[in-house]
Write a structure and sequence with these properties.
Elements (H helix, E strand, L loop, with lengths): L2 H31 L11 H9 L2 E10 H8 L1 E3 L1 H13 L6 E4 L2 E10 L2 E14 L4 E15 L2 E17 L19
Parallel strand pairs: 1-7
Antiparallel strand pairs: 1-2, 3-5, 4-5, 5-6, 6-7
Helix pairs in contact: 1-2, 2-4
């Protein structure tokens, strides 16, 4: 095997490994955003937000774009502003409260160029509220990533509404108040 062929194989392997790590990073972000949070050891929303922020670079941007999400989510630049965004979502208690949501990712596209990468997904997310209301939300995600010291981090999260559809009241007849499957004692 020539040095050129070996170098090409190494580059291809590096891209495949980067794609796999970015896929896990994006999936972990969505996992941490689920309600109830299934991450073992997360006892409250402050801990959840800390773990989410660990996935981002210090100067990262989180923004909602498009005619629906511009006004709903706005733009947060830097970890302090991103924390404030998530504090508004989870830190302020709402009535009716959100009792369940889950993020399903599809239509994945990841492009790696050295230590930078771009990824696009479509996600689907059912929401259930304590008063029995339910809705189905879908968004497009266009995110950026950077490899920092051998670890991939999110540098930008952009989300745009695809649709929001009401579901019948009491759409789900049973759902957990806490994740048992992912508990640290399971």
């Amino acid at each position: 095997m020539s040095d050129t062929t070996l170098a090409a194989l190494v580059r291809r392997l590096e891209v495949l490994e980067a794609e796999a790590e970015i896929r896990r990073l994006q999936a972990r972000y969505m996992f941490l955003c689920d309600t109830p949070c299934p991450e073992p050891g997360v006892e409250n929303d402050e801990q959840r937000i800390d773990r989410i922020l660990d996935l981002y670079t210090d100067e990262a941007v989180w923004e909602g774009v498009g005619e629906y999400y511009d006004n709903q989510f706005g733009r947060a630049v830097g970890k302090y502003a991103i924390r404030a965004h998530f504090d508004r979502f989870w830190g302020e208690k709402h009535d009716p409260s959100l009792v369940l949501n889950a993020h399903y990712l599809t239509s994945e596209q990841i492009r790696v160029a050295g230590d930078e990468a771009e990824g696009q997904w479509i996600h689907l997310q059912p929401w259930l509220f304590s008063d029995g209301r339910a809705l189905l939300r879908s968004s497009r995600l266009s995110n950026s990533f950077r490899n920092i010291g051998g670890s991939w981090k999110i540098t930008r999260t952009r989300t745009e509404n695809v649709f929001i559809a009401p579901l019948p009241n009491k759409f789900a007849e049973s759902y957990p108040l806490k994740s048992s499957l992912m508990s640290s004692t399971a």
